[in-house]
Write a structure and sequence with these properties.
Largest sheet: 7 strands, mixed
Low-confidence stretches: 1-34
Structural class: alpha/beta
Radius of gyration: 18 Å
Oligomer: single chain
Number of strands: 7
Shape: globular
Strand order of the largest sheet: 3-2-1-4-5-7-6
Length: about 260
Protein backbone atom coordinates (compact mmCIF):
# COMPACT_ATOMS: atom_id res chain seq x y z
CA UNK A 1 0.00 0.00 0.00
CA UNK A 2 2.82 2.35 0.94
CA UNK A 3 4.62 1.64 -2.34
CA UNK A 4 1.40 2.29 -4.27
CA UNK A 5 0.91 5.64 -2.56
CA UNK A 6 4.53 6.60 -3.19
CA UNK A 7 4.22 5.68 -6.86
CA UNK A 8 0.96 7.66 -7.12
CA UNK A 9 2.65 10.69 -5.57
CA UNK A 10 5.56 10.41 -7.98
CA UNK A 11 3.17 10.19 -10.93
CA UNK A 12 1.56 13.43 -9.80
CA UNK A 13 4.90 15.17 -9.40
CA UNK A 14 6.22 14.16 -12.83
CA UNK A 15 3.64 16.01 -14.92
CA UNK A 16 3.93 18.98 -12.60
CA UNK A 17 7.69 19.15 -13.09
CA UNK A 18 7.35 18.68 -16.83
CA UNK A 19 4.80 21.41 -17.34
CA UNK A 20 6.62 23.93 -15.15
CA UNK A 21 9.85 23.31 -17.07
CA UNK A 22 8.06 23.53 -20.41
CA UNK A 23 6.44 26.79 -19.39
CA UNK A 24 9.76 28.30 -18.40
CA UNK A 25 11.48 27.12 -21.57
CA UNK A 26 8.63 28.43 -23.71
CA UNK A 27 8.88 31.83 -22.08
CA UNK A 28 12.63 31.91 -22.58
CA UNK A 29 12.30 30.85 -26.20
CA UNK A 30 9.84 33.64 -26.92
CA UNK A 31 12.10 36.21 -25.30
CA UNK A 32 9.60 37.00 -22.55
CA UNK A 33 10.88 38.43 -19.28
CA UNK A 34 11.27 35.92 -16.49
CA UNK A 35 11.18 38.39 -13.62
CA UNK A 36 9.83 36.57 -10.58
CA UNK A 37 6.65 37.94 -9.00
CA UNK A 38 6.24 38.29 -5.26
CA UNK A 39 6.15 34.60 -4.39
CA UNK A 40 5.72 35.30 -0.68
CA UNK A 41 1.96 35.73 -1.15
CA UNK A 42 1.53 32.53 -3.18
CA UNK A 43 1.50 30.05 -0.34
CA UNK A 44 -0.10 26.66 0.32
CA UNK A 45 -2.49 28.44 2.69
CA UNK A 46 -3.57 30.88 -0.03
CA UNK A 47 -4.15 28.00 -2.43
CA UNK A 48 -6.12 26.12 0.22
CA UNK A 49 -8.40 29.11 0.86
CA UNK A 50 -9.17 29.50 -2.81
CA UNK A 51 -9.74 25.76 -3.22
CA UNK A 52 -12.13 25.71 -0.28
CA UNK A 53 -14.18 28.58 -1.72
CA UNK A 54 -14.31 26.83 -5.11
CA UNK A 55 -15.34 23.55 -3.47
CA UNK A 56 -18.08 25.06 -1.31
CA UNK A 57 -19.81 28.39 -1.93
CA UNK A 58 -18.65 28.91 -5.52
CA UNK A 59 -19.15 25.29 -6.57
CA UNK A 60 -22.36 25.93 -8.59
CA UNK A 61 -20.70 28.72 -10.58
CA UNK A 62 -18.24 26.60 -12.58
CA UNK A 63 -20.56 23.94 -14.05
CA UNK A 64 -23.02 26.63 -15.14
CA UNK A 65 -20.28 28.71 -16.76
CA UNK A 66 -18.82 25.64 -18.49
CA UNK A 67 -22.25 24.69 -19.86
CA UNK A 68 -22.82 28.23 -21.10
CA UNK A 69 -19.44 28.37 -22.87
CA UNK A 70 -19.77 24.92 -24.44
CA UNK A 71 -23.23 25.70 -25.77
CA UNK A 72 -22.54 29.24 -26.92
CA UNK A 73 -19.28 28.42 -28.72
CA UNK A 74 -20.28 24.92 -29.85
CA UNK A 75 -17.30 23.25 -28.16
CA UNK A 76 -18.83 19.87 -27.32
CA UNK A 77 -17.69 18.09 -30.49
CA UNK A 78 -14.82 20.34 -31.51
CA UNK A 79 -11.12 19.51 -31.16
CA UNK A 80 -8.67 22.10 -29.95
CA UNK A 81 -6.61 23.60 -27.14
CA UNK A 82 -8.13 25.73 -24.39
CA UNK A 83 -6.36 27.84 -21.78
CA UNK A 84 -7.78 29.01 -18.45
CA UNK A 85 -5.83 32.08 -17.28
CA UNK A 86 -5.59 32.33 -13.50
CA UNK A 87 -7.68 29.22 -12.98
CA UNK A 88 -6.43 28.50 -9.45
CA UNK A 89 -7.59 25.03 -8.38
CA UNK A 90 -8.83 24.39 -11.92
CA UNK A 91 -12.54 24.01 -11.19
CA UNK A 92 -13.55 25.62 -14.48
CA UNK A 93 -10.84 23.80 -16.45
CA UNK A 94 -12.09 20.43 -15.23
CA UNK A 95 -15.76 21.25 -15.83
CA UNK A 96 -14.89 22.28 -19.39
CA UNK A 97 -12.83 19.14 -19.95
CA UNK A 98 -15.71 16.91 -18.84
CA UNK A 99 -17.92 18.48 -21.51
CA UNK A 100 -15.40 18.68 -24.37
CA UNK A 101 -13.72 15.28 -24.85
CA UNK A 102 -11.79 16.40 -27.95
CA UNK A 103 -10.27 19.50 -26.31
CA UNK A 104 -7.05 19.67 -24.30
CA UNK A 105 -7.42 22.23 -21.50
CA UNK A 106 -4.51 23.94 -19.74
CA UNK A 107 -5.08 25.44 -16.31
CA UNK A 108 -2.65 28.27 -15.57
CA UNK A 109 -1.99 30.07 -12.33
CA UNK A 110 0.74 32.05 -10.62
CA UNK A 111 0.34 29.97 -7.43
CA UNK A 112 1.90 26.58 -8.16
CA UNK A 113 0.58 25.09 -4.91
CA UNK A 114 -2.68 24.39 -6.74
CA UNK A 115 -1.01 21.80 -8.95
CA UNK A 116 -1.08 18.66 -6.79
CA UNK A 117 -4.77 18.97 -5.90
CA UNK A 118 -5.62 19.83 -9.51
CA UNK A 119 -4.01 16.69 -10.93
CA UNK A 120 -5.47 14.53 -8.16
CA UNK A 121 -8.98 15.77 -8.92
CA UNK A 122 -8.42 15.32 -12.65
CA UNK A 123 -7.66 11.66 -11.97
CA UNK A 124 -10.88 11.19 -10.02
CA UNK A 125 -12.90 12.83 -12.82
CA UNK A 126 -11.26 10.64 -15.48
CA UNK A 127 -9.96 13.56 -17.52
CA UNK A 128 -6.31 13.61 -16.43
CA UNK A 129 -5.16 12.76 -19.95
CA UNK A 130 -6.92 15.81 -21.37
CA UNK A 131 -5.76 18.52 -18.96
CA UNK A 132 -2.50 20.10 -17.87
CA UNK A 133 -1.36 22.84 -15.53
CA UNK A 134 1.49 25.31 -15.78
CA UNK A 135 2.82 28.29 -13.91
CA UNK A 136 1.89 31.47 -15.75
CA UNK A 137 1.77 35.19 -15.17
CA UNK A 138 -1.13 36.68 -17.15
CA UNK A 139 1.17 39.48 -18.32
CA UNK A 140 3.70 37.02 -19.83
CA UNK A 141 1.86 33.90 -20.96
CA UNK A 142 4.23 31.00 -21.75
CA UNK A 143 2.66 30.07 -25.07
CA UNK A 144 3.71 30.71 -28.63
CA UNK A 145 1.74 33.00 -30.92
CA UNK A 146 -1.52 31.61 -32.34
CA UNK A 147 -1.55 28.67 -29.92
CA UNK A 148 -5.01 28.40 -28.32
CA UNK A 149 -8.42 27.88 -29.85
CA UNK A 150 -10.12 29.21 -26.73
CA UNK A 151 -8.98 31.28 -23.75
CA UNK A 152 -11.12 31.78 -20.67
CA UNK A 153 -10.59 33.53 -17.37
CA UNK A 154 -13.04 33.94 -14.52
CA UNK A 155 -12.27 36.28 -11.66
CA UNK A 156 -8.57 36.87 -12.28
CA UNK A 157 -8.80 40.20 -14.13
CA UNK A 158 -9.16 42.30 -10.93
CA UNK A 159 -5.74 40.99 -9.86
CA UNK A 160 -3.92 41.92 -13.08
CA UNK A 161 -1.50 44.78 -12.51
CA UNK A 162 -1.77 45.82 -16.16
CA UNK A 163 -5.04 44.59 -17.74
CA UNK A 164 -4.09 46.00 -21.14
CA UNK A 165 -0.86 43.96 -21.20
CA UNK A 166 -2.65 40.78 -20.10
CA UNK A 167 -5.41 41.19 -22.68
CA UNK A 168 -2.79 41.78 -25.38
CA UNK A 169 -1.08 38.54 -24.30
CA UNK A 170 -4.35 36.62 -24.53
CA UNK A 171 -4.97 38.03 -28.00
CA UNK A 172 -1.42 37.07 -29.02
CA UNK A 173 -1.82 33.41 -28.05
CA UNK A 174 -5.24 33.05 -29.68
CA UNK A 175 -5.29 31.21 -32.97
CA UNK A 176 -6.84 33.04 -35.92
CA UNK A 177 -10.55 32.45 -35.45
CA UNK A 178 -10.03 31.72 -31.74
CA UNK A 179 -12.26 33.14 -29.03
CA UNK A 180 -11.55 34.60 -25.58
CA UNK A 181 -14.08 34.94 -22.76
CA UNK A 182 -12.78 37.00 -19.85
CA UNK A 183 -14.53 38.48 -16.86
CA UNK A 184 -15.96 38.14 -13.40
CA UNK A 185 -19.19 37.03 -11.80
CA UNK A 186 -21.75 34.56 -13.06
CA UNK A 187 -22.89 33.23 -16.41
CA UNK A 188 -26.37 34.20 -17.66
CA UNK A 189 -27.68 30.65 -17.15
CA UNK A 190 -26.99 30.56 -13.40
CA UNK A 191 -30.40 30.55 -11.66
CA UNK A 192 -31.19 33.70 -9.73
CA UNK A 193 -31.77 31.86 -6.45
CA UNK A 194 -28.35 30.20 -6.74
CA UNK A 195 -26.63 33.48 -7.56
CA UNK A 196 -28.38 35.13 -4.59
CA UNK A 197 -27.22 32.37 -2.23
CA UNK A 198 -23.60 32.61 -3.44
CA UNK A 199 -23.56 36.38 -2.89
CA UNK A 200 -25.16 36.09 0.55
CA UNK A 201 -22.59 33.53 1.62
CA UNK A 202 -19.78 35.83 0.49
CA UNK A 203 -20.89 38.39 3.08
CA UNK A 204 -18.38 41.24 3.27
CA UNK A 205 -16.32 39.50 0.58
CA UNK A 206 -18.80 40.35 -2.18
CA UNK A 207 -16.86 42.16 -4.95
CA UNK A 208 -17.81 45.82 -5.06
CA UNK A 209 -17.13 47.69 -8.28
CA UNK A 210 -18.94 49.90 -10.74
CA UNK A 211 -20.19 47.66 -13.54
CA UNK A 212 -20.83 50.58 -15.92
CA UNK A 213 -17.32 51.96 -15.40
CA UNK A 214 -15.84 48.49 -15.89
CA UNK A 215 -17.67 48.11 -19.19
CA UNK A 216 -16.41 51.50 -20.37
CA UNK A 217 -12.82 50.71 -19.42
CA UNK A 218 -12.89 47.36 -21.20
CA UNK A 219 -14.32 48.95 -24.32
CA UNK A 220 -11.53 51.52 -24.23
CA UNK A 221 -8.90 48.79 -23.88
CA UNK A 222 -10.27 46.89 -26.86
CA UNK A 223 -10.11 50.04 -28.99
CA UNK A 224 -6.57 50.81 -27.80
CA UNK A 225 -5.46 47.28 -28.66
CA UNK A 226 -7.07 47.47 -32.08
CA UNK A 227 -9.33 44.49 -31.40
CA UNK A 228 -12.39 44.95 -33.57
CA UNK A 229 -14.45 41.81 -32.90
CA UNK A 230 -15.49 42.11 -29.26
CA UNK A 231 -18.56 42.42 -27.10
CA UNK A 232 -19.13 43.31 -23.48
CA UNK A 233 -21.70 41.05 -21.87
CA UNK A 234 -23.97 42.10 -19.04
CA UNK A 235 -25.54 38.79 -17.92
CA UNK A 236 -28.54 40.51 -16.36
CA UNK A 237 -29.60 44.05 -17.09
CA UNK A 238 -31.20 44.47 -13.68
CA UNK A 239 -28.42 43.81 -11.17
CA UNK A 240 -29.90 45.71 -8.25
CA UNK A 241 -30.70 42.50 -6.39
CA UNK A 242 -27.75 40.32 -7.41
CA UNK A 243 -24.60 41.45 -9.16
CA UNK A 244 -24.06 38.93 -11.99
CA UNK A 245 -20.86 40.65 -13.02
CA UNK A 246 -19.59 41.55 -16.48
CA UNK A 247 -17.77 39.66 -19.24
CA UNK A 248 -15.68 40.45 -22.29
CA UNK A 249 -15.67 38.30 -25.42
CA UNK A 250 -13.22 38.92 -28.23
CA UNK A 251 -11.73 36.99 -31.11
CA UNK A 252 -8.81 37.06 -33.51
CA UNK A 253 -9.78 37.31 -37.19
CA UNK A 254 -9.64 34.09 -39.16
CA UNK A 255 -6.94 33.82 -41.80
CA UNK A 256 -9.76 32.97 -44.21
CA UNK A 257 -11.50 36.27 -43.61
CA UNK A 258 -11.69 38.53 -46.69
Amino acid sequence: MEDTMTMHGNLLRLPMLAVFLCARLAAAADGLPLTAPDYEQFTPAAAARMSEAARTNLSPVYPALAEYLVERFQLAHRAGVGVDVGGGPGSLTLELSRRTPRFYWINTDINTFHATAFFARALTLDCAGRVGMIFADAHHLPFRNDYADFVVSRGSIPFWAEPKTALAEIYRVLKPGGQAFIGRGFSPNLPLDVARRVRENQGSGVPRYDVAETMKSWQRLMLELGIKDFEIIHPREDQREVNYGVWLRFSKPSTHSP
